[in-house]
């Protein structure tokens, strides 16, 4: 809701009401979205810093509701987390992404398959079995799967349960990447508490490009080396950003410079000349 000084209380509360109503509507519509066939998956390549291979494709959920039209995941994922619907939606994403990855015939050449996981999925019993069953169903090796988790895994009362679940998945051969790194409250010193195999530097640091943001990226690379884990930078839009990240020693790059999230998997990527400007 927009706070306006001049606006009367009525306008303010109307605004609030509109926002609240939209949230409720989204929550309701989300319950039917799978059945209604309203979800689609987009995939965005993660490119090795040497630019000679694709490390992975990240799965990003898209929703086009019959009434609301396209709704951004930044808007509907938090609502799905609040209502609990993310558990069902997450299971759908996992199965559908693996299905498309297997059906593409590119699993051998398109790098690994990365999927975003919400905290609620991790603390809901059955995730490990669900992941194993989906991998088996589509005949994909656990070594091909990356699960992206956020720093919320450190902040939870359930951290020992979370550790047990993630450690089990990691022992299967699945990679666990820490997403949006630098935006949360996880201190670097807590990294060893979870089986993290890579840090994904949040795009805000990549795009700021000032001395402070650069220092944070450099520091993350140094720490990651100490822990023997990799560093991925997201939100890379310009050649200048890519070159600076390569110089810092980041292992992999992801962003519009290489490709927007699109349907299907890519075997090669080229720098998008439009984004170079
Ligand atoms: P995220 O996991 O941090 O994903 C990266 C976001 O940055 C994506 O937004 C992607 O489209 C966008 N992006 C990629 N390259 C660039 C770039 O060069 N510049 C800019 N400005 N943005 C770039 P998207 O697809 O809107 O997703 C937003 C968030 O929604 C994701 O952030 C993730 O937290 C969540 N999300 C998306 N799909 C899923 C899902 O299947 N499950 C869960 N739990 N969360 C999801
Ligand atoms: Ca992610
Ligand atoms: Ca991210
Ligand atoms: Ca994010």
Question: Which class of secondary structure composition applies to the elements?
Answer: alpha/beta
Give unreliable regions as ranges. Answer: none
Gyration radius (Cα, Å) is 20 Å
Sheet of most strands: 8 strands, mixed, barrel
List ligands, each type once. Answer: ligand C2E, calcium ion
Tally the beta strands.
Answer: 9
Q: Looking at the structure, what is the overall shape?
A: globular
Helical residue percent band: 40-55%
Number of helices: 10
Strand order of the largest sheet: 1-2-4-5-6-7-8-9
Distance between the termini: 35 Å
Query: Per DSSP, what share of the residues sits in E-state strands of 2 or more residues?
Result: 15-25%
Order of helices and strands: HEEEHHEHHEHEEHHEHEH
| Average predicted local confidence, pLDDT | 92
Structural description of this entry:
Helices cover 44% and strands 19% of the residues. It has ten helices and nine strands. It has an eight-stranded mixed beta barrel, surrounded by four helices. Strand 8, helix 9 (239-248) and strand 9 form a beta-alpha-beta unit. Helix 1 (9-33) crosses helix 2 and helix 3 (86-104) runs parallel beside helix 5 (127-137). The longest helix is centred in the N-terminal third of the chain and has 25 residues, at 9-33. The structure holds ligand C2E and calcium ion (CA) (3 copies). Ligand C2E binds next to strand 2, helix 2, helix 3 and strand 6.
């Amino acid at each position: 809701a927009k706070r306006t000084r001049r606006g009367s209380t009525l306008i303010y509360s109307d605004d609030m009401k509109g926002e609240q109503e939209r949230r409720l509507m989204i929550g309701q519509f989300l319950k039917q979205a799978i059945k209604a066939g309203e979800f689609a998956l987009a995939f965005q390549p993660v490119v090795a810093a040497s630019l000679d291979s694709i490390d992975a494709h990240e799965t990003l959920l898209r929703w086009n509701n019959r009434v609301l039209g396209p709704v951004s995941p930044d808007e509907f994922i938090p609502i799905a987390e609040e209502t609990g619907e993310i558990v069902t939606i997450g299971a759908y994403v996992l199965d559908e992404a693996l299905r498309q990855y297997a059906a593409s015939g590119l699993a051998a050449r398109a790098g690994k398959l990365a999927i975003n996981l919400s905290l609620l999925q991790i603390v809901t019993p059955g995730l490990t079995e669900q992941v194993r069953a989906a991998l088996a169903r589509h005949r994909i090796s656990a070594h091909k799967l990356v699960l992206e988790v956020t720093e919320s895994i450190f902040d939870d009362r359930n951290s020992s349960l979370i550790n047990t679940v993630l450690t089990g998945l990691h022992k299967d051969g699945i990679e666990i990447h820490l997403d949006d790194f630098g935006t949360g409250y996880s201190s670097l010193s807590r990294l060893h508490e979870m089986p993290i195999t890579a840090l994904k530097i949040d795009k805000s640091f990549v795009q700021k490009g000032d001395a402070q943001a650069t220092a944070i990226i450099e520091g993350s690379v140094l720490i990651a080396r100490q822990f023997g884990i990799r560093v991925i930078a997201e939100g890379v839009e310009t050649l200048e950003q890519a070159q600076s990240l390569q110089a810092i020693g980041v292992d992999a790059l992801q962003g519009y410079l290489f490709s927007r999230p699109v349907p299907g998997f890519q075997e090669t990527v080229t720098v998008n000349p439009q984004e170079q400007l």
